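User: Show me sequence and structure for the first protein, then do the same for the second.

Assistant: Starting with the first protein.
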Amino acid sequence: MITSAGVGQHWGKTRLRWLLLVLVAALIPALAGCEAGDNAPTVDFHYPTDAAGIVAGDLSIRNVFVLGAPLGSSLAPGQSASLFFAIVNTGTPDRLLSISAPGVATSVKLPAGGVAISTDQSVLLTGPQPQAWLVKLTKVLGSGTDITLVMNFQKQGPVSMQVPVFAHATHYVTLSPPPSPPAATTASRKHAGPTPTPSPSAS
């Protein structure tokens, strides 16, 4: 005959076993991270990114995004926007000749002569100072949107991709907007009529 005290003792032991199992399961990830050292995946932290990327032939175009305005605002038509990206080339040498942003900007500024990409080379146009930017936006550019970029390579040809616009905030706040264009200096001249020609003096 099982008494009530025996039943209570049985359930008490069962609950203790379950608590021990839960405790061991919780400790396993922490112990695994410690054994792996400081380089364990549970220790390293990487900022999440939704930047665009595409592979075209031997070219791997990575971490492409446009830097927009601060949170709560947008870039207005006529303004410029920084463009950041990286290119890895595992094939024959190539060169990025130009970039266009159809329906978004009148042109895209690149370093003079384009961007040369040698074999087994990584080219990083990743900031913090932009080396490429969208010039004279043709429409309002809000953060959280995507735009179409077309990269034109000497050998690979045109490569089209959808590129996100990130707000100038959080871990993107260290990146810089494009340099301001030089102010146009127009000298204002007053036209008070033709300058009289001096007459020769009488001798």
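Switching to the second protein now.
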Amino acid sequence: MRVAAAILLIVVLLAAPACQMNERLSGTVFGAIGGAVLGGVASGGGGAVVGGLAGGLIGYLIGDYMADQRERGRGSVFGSSSDATVAGIRDEPAHVKAARTAYERGRAAKTAPEAKRWYLESLRLNPDRPEPYNLLGLNALYAGDLDAAEDYLERALTVDPDYRPAQHNLAKLRRELIRR
């Protein structure tokens, strides 16, 4: 019975990422459930608690990695890049490489003002990517500047109308503005 439950759980956990949930949330939920079930099967109640906590943390980290890859436009985490894609990155213009470097420095920044400075630099070098606009929108949102947040998120969607993170963030911001 334990083996059947474990196999069923593994199948569910492998199929679940196909759902349209946020990767971080789904990773946390499925990791916690999987860890709790496997911990409970292996060690009883105490193992279920420890397994759930460990599985949730690991699931979140995996989900965060997957979301990061998607947000950077790298497509499937499990798929492989074609040679044309790799060559395209290698052969891109210097200003695009510099913009990507500034964007990455913004993502690695320790403070919101530092991140904002790098995102603005990225846009100065290459205004044709939605990611810096989206993150500037979030930066403004967390600083309490809702008008600037809305403006940046709208600009992200002007650059790429199909950019899902900006669509999600703008919809969430507008729901919040309606409540006020």
